[in-house]
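We store sequence with structure; for instance:
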Amino acid sequence: MHKFSYQRPTSMTEAFSLKKAAPENSLYVAGGSDVLLLLKKSVIAPNNLISLRALDELKGIRETENRVFIGSGTTIRELETSAFIAEKFPALRDAAVNLASTQIRNVATLGGNIINASPGADTAAPLLIYEAQVIIINAQLAERTVALTDFFKGPKQVHLEKDELVKGFSLEVPPAGSGSAYLKFMKRKAMDLANVGVGVMLTLAQDGTCTDIRIGLATVAPTPIRALKTEAFLKGKIIDEATLTEAGEIATTEIAPIDDLRGKAWHKTEVIKAYIKRACQQARLRSVKGEV
């Protein structure tokens, strides 16, 4: 494996200074679960790894009024075990529970999962349905915010400058009467990447009419996406079997799956039809039970 130095800054200022000293040969690393694999496969060959694990500014789950901040350095395991996340953002917990193994979840971070910009990133679809905002900080410690839908440029590409870091994600707490769920289709029953991922958050009126719905899809386009046409179709309708069947058909017009090691494009299309229905039903059930 390629040799490299390892540095562990204790402040944001120090982290940016270390990167500035060797911008072309340094790489930030949080949990390192993806980076180590790329190093072993010689896909990347940095001379210097700068660890972000000691930076408290990038950690934690903090509620402020009707929004929640989740630091980019928050581990997937923390999301999995958080009672607050389970109560308010169950689709995100669904994704955390099904991401790799417990050992990996103990070190893998939310920021790393998103910044990697994989079309099948487990946490991407849930964050999309919660309309997450990405909080970005630069070397001058100035911050800017961008919608997650605009953050992805393409596979393995995000809108992040060389002197910037993702500080965290800001999510609005779903309103009362909402329910959400994330379903992941895998070849194996555990520790596999997603063939297809579907996240749904919906809000129902007292008569069962869908007043709002958001659908996030993974592994069926160059980046994780929102199924906007499908959402528009479902708004104002009763969520029943016939409606969800038609919604699944509409969703297939919004995707562009490809044949890859995880499955054939035609099969992913069929899975989308079924999983749109199942995820909506699960979200509806959670809404009826009062679980957001």
Observations:
- The mean pLDDT is 93.
